[in-house]
Write a structure and sequence with these properties.
With 213 residues, this protein is an all-alpha fold. 76% of the residues lie in helices and 0% in strands. The chain folds into 2 domains: 54 residues, no CATH class; 140 residues, Tetracycline Repressor, domain 2, CATH 1.10.357.
Length: 213
């Protein structure tokens, strides 16, 4: 992709820039992100990035949308699981897959920045979280749960996965075993909840995950 191609390619060029910027941010994270090194890595200028996206905040929001779209696209193609317990295990395996792992890390990083009310994270995290949870609900319903139970349980799964991601160690085999045990415990809890009257009762319309008030 060259700047000249992007300059003349209209709407498609914005998607290409967003994809390239997303690849860059997935490798380096959001904290400390500045336009000049990003532009240099993409073979363009910070002025051109502002021209294309309007502002750094708009570019960051587009990166988070692109990353989230990649993750939800992967999850949407998962085959149905054999019940709620298997669904939790399958969803965690998907989140841990190389195609999604970096996207989920970026999602959690943005969520942490949102806790301080910092934009664009305060707005974009809510948007992407709703899309993410909708995809989780879809997988749960395809795996045999009714819609109210799936919406209720998606909140628990989402919050637990974020917490596990924050605790997931790098290169610590004992810590990884602890996370695997926690996922198994979560799967058991979700299975019991799905079978209980509370789990089957009508749920309220979905809101933001509990870890992001």
């Amino acid at each position: 992709m060259s700047p000249d191609q992007v300059e003349t390619d209209g709407r498609g060029s914005r998607r290409e820039w967003a994809d390239a910027a997303t690849d860059y941010v997935l490798e380096r994270g959001l904290i400390g992100l500045t336009l000049r090194p990003l532009a240099a890595a993409l073979g363009t200028s910070d002025r051109m990035l502002i021209y294309r996206f309007g502002s750094k905040d708009s570019l960051v929001a587009e990166v988070l949308r692109t990353s989230n779209a990649r993750a939800t696209e992967y999850l949407s193609h998962l085959p149905p699981s054999e019940g709620p317990k298997a669904a939790v295990r399958d969803l965690w395996a998907a989140v841990s897959h190389p195609a999604v792992d970096g996207c989920h890390r970026l999602y959690v990083e943005a969520a942490a920045l949102r806790l301080f009310g910092q934009e664009p994270y305060a707005s974009i995290v809510r948007e992407t979280n709703n899309e993410w949870r909708s995809t989780v609900v879809d997988h749960l319903t395809r795996s045999g749960l009714d819609a109210p139970a799936a919406r209720r349980i998606s909140t628990l799964i989402d919050a637990a996965f974020v917490g596990l991601r924050l605790d997931l160690p790098l290169g610590d085999s004992n810590g990884t075993h602890d996370v695997d045990t926690a996922v198994a415990d979560l799967a058991t809890a979700v299975s019991l909840l799905a079978e209980s009257p509370v789990g089957r009762q009508a749920a309220q319309p979905p809101g933001p995950a509990s870890c992001w008030p």
